[in-house]
Every structure is written in structure tokens, then in C-alpha cells.
Amino acid sequence: MNPLRTLALAAAPTAMLIGLSAAPAMAADDPAPNPPATVSISPAKQQVKTWHWMGNYGSVNDVANAANGFGAGAGEFVTQNINGLWATFMYY
């Protein structure tokens, strides 16, 4: 057997022992990483928006007042003139 191979085999267990004892020391030197922060807007589940029947209005002014009173955004208030009445749906 080659004498250099014998030295390599003898040094391997020593290197493993040094590596095992140095690993906890190196880990203790590093600061612990900060866990990612989670942001919760509200503890309750958010309600899913759906379309709701708001009724028939007699004039366009009544429909506009209802939309402005609710604070409906773009596309959240739909109306159609059917036989003189304004059929209206709201998305909330």
C-alpha cells in the first residue's frame, strides 16, 4: 500500500471530527435570519362582491342619486331604460 494513501486515510477521520465540532461554532456566529413578516388587513374573511337588484327608478336623476349615495365606482352601477322605468343593478 502506498504510504501517502495511508496518511490520507488516517487524516480523514480527524478532518471529519474537526468539521463536526466547528459547524456549531460557525452557526452560532451567524445571526439568525429574520422571519418574513405577515401583514393581515383584517382578521375576518373579505366578502365576495356580487350583483344585486336595486329596483326600478322613475327617472335618471333618481338613478344618479342612488349611485352617488352609495359611492359606487366605475362599473359598479348598471341601469337600463325598460318601458319608462330604469332597471338598476349594483355591484357590492
TrEMBL record:
Residues 1-27 form the signal peptide. It comes from the Bacteria. Keywords: Signal. This is Chitinase. It comes from Streptomyces cinnamoneus (Streptoverticillium cinnamoneum).
